[in-house]
Design goal:
single chain; about 210 residues; alpha/beta; five-stranded parallel sheet; two-stranded antiparallel ribbon; 9 helices; about 45% helix; about 15% strand
Length: about 210
């Protein structure tokens, strides 16, 4: 970890960073993270070399387990709270109660909520399986009834959860940055969210934009 951070500093031409993420921890490494990795990161934080300690993962269980064992400032959760699926709802409530900030990454489930059910649509970096395609088609049908873009609905749904303090969206051009901003500003009627709820397409406990 220390070698990796030193390499990052060299490439960034910096001697400190705001956030250090423990990225994609595996359950088998839990004891090592608790006993070796985290104490070393805490020392870096005490020295002012980093400001915030984060765990970044798509695994809800390991994120919760680590956050209960260690004083994390932040969890970056990838793809487990999206318009398509919300298995992280209980975890989000726990993080919020503990005062842990949450960054949402992968809010398009690595592709399909941005592209829709096109040929070759991706889900979790693989070709989307039939059951995912079928669920997204149901989302698309509700979008079509209300004249809403699936991509905009996906972004605004995630933003509505009060535990989520920031959303991480990649971009490699000015146009993509502009698009990332635009999806949060598209008007979506309350009836759309109510329709999703009535169709059973979002968890009944999930907060909806505008308290729809």
């Amino acid at each position: 970890m220390l070698r990796g951070l030193a390499g990052s500093f060299e490439r960034l031409k910096r001697d400190h960073v705001d956030i250090l993420h423990i990225h994609d921890p595996i359950p088998e490494a839990f004891d090592q993270i608790v006993n070796e990795t985290f104490p070393a990161i805490l020392e870096l934080k005490a020295q002012g070399i980093i400001k915030v300690i984060s765990v970044g993962t798509g695994g809800v269980e390991i994120a919760v387990k680590l956050s209960r064992a260690l004083p994390f400032d932040l969890v970056m959760l990838a793809g487990r709270y999206t318009l398509l699926e919300q298995p992280a709802l209980d975890a989000l409530a726990e993080f919020q109660q503990a005062g842990i900030s949450v960054f949402s990454a992968g809010l398009y489930n690595s592709g399909i909520l941005a592209t829709g059910t096109v040929s070759g649509a991706k889900y979790n970096y693989q070709n989307a399986p039939a059951e995912i395609i079928a669920r997204v088609k149901r989302l698309e049908a509700v979008c079509a009834r209300h004249g809403v873009r699936l991509k905009a609905a996906a972004a605004q749904f995630v933003r509505a959860h009060p535990a989520i303090t920031s959303i991480v969206l990649g971009a490699d051009s000015v146009a993509q940055i502009e698009e990332n901003v635009a999806v949060f500003n598209e008007p979506i009627p309350a009836a759309f969210w109510q329709d999703l709820r009535a169709q059973g397409l979002v968890d009944e406990r999930a907060p909806l934009p505008g308290n729809a």
